[in-house]
Amino acid sequence: MPRLFLIGYRATGKTTVGRIVASRLGLEFVDADGHLEATCGRTVRDLFRDEGESGFRDRESAVLEELATAEVWDDHVISTGGGVVIRPANRAHLRRGFVARLTASAATIHARMTTDAAVLDQRPNLTPGGGLAEVEALLAAREAWYREVADVTVETEGRSPEDVADAIVTAYRAANPTPESAG
User: Fold this and answer.
1) Distance between CA 104 and CA 14 in Å, rounded?
2) DSSP class of residue 91?
3) Number of structural domains, the chain?
4) Is residue 183 situated within a structural domain?
5) For each of the chain's 183 residues, which pLDDT tens digit applies?
6) CA–CA separation, 143 vs 8, rounded Å?
7) First-last CA distance in the chain
8) Domain holding 20: CATH number?
9) Which of 110, 135, 144, 154 has the least C-beta neighbours within 10 A?
10) What is the Cα–Cα distance from 138 to 114, expressed in whole angstroms?
11) In a domain, 138, yes or no
12) pTM score > 0.85 for this model?
């Protein structure tokens, strides 16, 4: 079965839902940002500070290429960073698998970000002001790219992670029927 990529803005539930999806499909789970941090020994926040957004995006792209092409990552659910869709080469790598996009309103994303200590501690602002205005601006800027690569879009607002995972598993199985499920 093809790799299953989860895309969407930060705090849409990609990591939480990804773990559930992997478990339900009998696959392994990997968080691309976590893999990047483990590989280079620095946090995303540190990479942004030390190398700027461009340097971080270069590293993010290299990790995505590895996760999308190396055989060791077959049979994985892969949670990606929110901005992975910015680069055309990354969008091409995502198309090598099944892509589930998680969404929520800007207000909900902002609320989740401000109440999740891990998000606040690990991820830098991407615009000078940060906050809700940043979320709204980046959602608008990335919308077409998210739509371009998504095989399915699943709203997370007001839904449990288990419900969101069920929707993704259903769409993934429909797109990738096994001999047992096709007969």
Assistant:
1) 12
2) H
3) 1
4) no
5) 789 999 999 899 999 999 999 999 999 999 999 999 999 999 988 998 899 989 999 999 999 999 999 999 999 999 999 999 999 999 999 999 999 999 999 999 988 888 865 555 555 545 545 688 889 999 999 999 999 999 999 999 999 999 999 999 999 999 988 765 544
6) 9
7) 17
8) 3.40.50.300
9) 144
10) 17
11) yes
12) yes
